[in-house]
């Protein structure tokens, strides 16, 4: 082989190698983005209920709140990811203990665990009710179906998280995108900026506090997933790209939902699923698609909640991850039948307040580390 051919072979090999690295990097970025979106988007966001309560009530100004929330996600989740990689952390309890190594940190850890168990229990109960509504089978059977599929997914560990969100998140984007496009085409000029700004807001003040509480609550909620996947992927740049991409897509989806809800005030507040009222005019197929994605997001949140607690049990008590999965699900199942909605309503404001303090502590910890 002559000199020129040898150079050509080396150059070709180098280009193919770089191409492979680039594709692998972006595959991981999309996986992280999907996990991030799937963890934050629960049934509350997909149904429009969370957006209506935290943003829509404040009118057009709430769009700025949603944009701020997206930027907040990128900043805070990237900081938590960096702390996790540098300290080889694997659960939310470890990051809480690291940034808040005192009695307050222990309270935050306990309340977070209680909140996640309560959330998992309510999702099991809700999925049973939704499956009953769809197929007419007993609620307990629907709950057991959700529990079984969640257990099988969780046994695959982080791969299970990647797989389910790689299906659910693109479907979510498609469904919300379809409803938005249909609304733009068939609802005249109701989304005209001039008309939007002319609409009166349901509440005059409080959008800034509502935005901060919502962002803080979701950051602490997704900690249980962000921490272990950061350590798994182990690359700060890849994690940042994935979190940023996920946050941008999530922000766009939330703005779409918010705009459709704003122009349908006050009627949307009469419905448990506000987005279903918006989609009602487009016929049954769209409604069924929306209900299916809400069920999918309930499943995704269930998996994320149980995964987070099982990881914490593994790191805190050296309990095998698989045994932790079954322990959490066995605790959540009877609670789902008793009803724990009052507990989660009590924990919600406490959890929200603790999340804000945790975020401040993360900032302080990060800045102190930067100075050293």
Instruction: Give the helix/strand class.
Output: mainly alpha
Taken together, the total number of domains comes to 1
Low-confidence stretches: 8-14
What would you give as the CATH superfamily?
Hydantoin permease
Shape: globular
**H-E order:** HHHHHHHHHHHHHHH
CATH class: Mainly Alpha
Summarize model confidence as the mean pLDDT. Answer: 85
Oligomer kind: single chain
What Rg do the Cα atoms give? Answer: 22 Å
Number of strands: 0
> At the third CATH level, what is the topology name?
Hydantoin permease
Determine the N-to-C terminus distance: 54 Å
What this model shows, in words?
The chain is mainly alpha-helical. It has a single domain (30-364), classed as Hydantoin permease, CATH 1.10.4160.10. 83% of the residues lie in helices and 0% in strands. It contains 15 helices and no strands. Helix 1 crosses helix 8 (158-186), helix 1 (3-40) packs across helix 10 (207-233) and helix 4 (62-87) packs parallel to helix 10. The longest helix has 38 residues, at 3-40. Mean pLDDT is 85; it is low at 8-14.
Offer a concise description of the structure.
The chain has helices at residues 3-40, 43-46, 49-54, 62-87, 92-99, 103-135, 139-154, 158-186, 193-198, 207-233, 236-262, 274-279, 284-317, 321-338, 341-371. The protein is mainly α and 372 residues long.
Q: Which descriptors would you attach to this protein?
A:
globular, 372 residues, mainly alpha, Hydantoin permease
Strand and helix layout:
Blueprint: H1 3-40, H2 43-46, H3 49-54, H4 62-87, H5 92-99, H6 103-135, H7 139-154, H8 158-186, H9 193-198, H10 207-233, H11 236-262, H12 274-279, H13 284-317, H14 321-338, H15 341-371
Helix pairs in contact: 1-8, 1-10, 1-11, 4-10, 4-11, 4-15, 5-6, 6-7, 6-13, 6-14, 6-15, 7-13, 7-14, 8-11, 8-13, 10-13, 10-15, 13-14
């Amino acid at each position: 082989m002559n000199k020129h051919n040898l150079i050509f072979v080396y150059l070709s090999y180098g280009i193919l190698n770089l191409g492979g690295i680039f594709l692998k990097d972006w595959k991981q970025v999309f996986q992280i983005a999907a996990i991030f979106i799937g963890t934050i988007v629960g049934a509350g966001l997909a149904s429009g209920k969370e957006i209506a309560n935290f943003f829509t009530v404040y009118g057009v100004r709430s769009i700025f709140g949603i944009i701020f929330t997206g930027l907040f996600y990128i900043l805070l989740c990237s900081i938590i990811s960096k702390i996790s990689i540098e300290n080889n952390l694997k659960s939310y309890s470890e990051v809480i203990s690291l940034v808040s190594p005192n009695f307050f940190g222990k309270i935050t850890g306990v309340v977070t665990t209680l909140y996640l168990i309560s959330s998992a229990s309510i999702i099991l109960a809700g999925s049973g009710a939704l499956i009953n509504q769809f197929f007419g089978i007993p609620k307990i059977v629907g709950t057991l179906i959700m529990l079984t599929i969640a257990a099988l997914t969780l046994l695959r560990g982080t791969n299970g998280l990647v797989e389910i969100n790689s299906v659910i998140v693109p479907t979510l984007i498609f469904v919300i995108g379809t409803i938005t496009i249909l609304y733009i085409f068939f609802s005249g000029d109701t989304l005209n900026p001039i008309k939007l700004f002319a609409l009166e807001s349901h509440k005059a003040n409080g959008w800034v506090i509502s935005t901060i509480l919502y962002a803080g609550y979701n950051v602490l909620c997704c900690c249980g997933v962000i921490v272990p996947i950061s350590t798994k992927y182990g690359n700060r740049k890849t994690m940042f790209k994935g979190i940023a991409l996920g946050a941008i897509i999530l922000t766009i989806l939330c703005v779409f939902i918010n705009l459709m809800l704003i122009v349908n005030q006050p009627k949307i507040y009469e419905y448990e699923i506000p987005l279903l009222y918006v989609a009602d005019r487009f016929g049954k197929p769209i409604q069924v698609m929306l209900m299916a994605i809400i069920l999918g997001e309930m499943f995704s949140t269930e998996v994320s909640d149980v995964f987070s607690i099982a990881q914490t049990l593994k790191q805190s008590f050296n309990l095998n991850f698989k045994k932790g999965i079954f322990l959490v699900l066995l605790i959540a199942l009877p609670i789902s039948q008793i009803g724990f909605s009052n507990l989660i309503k009590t924990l919600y404001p406490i959890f929200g307040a603790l999340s804000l303090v945790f975020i401040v502590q993360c900032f302080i910890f990060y800045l102190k580390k930067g100075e050293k």
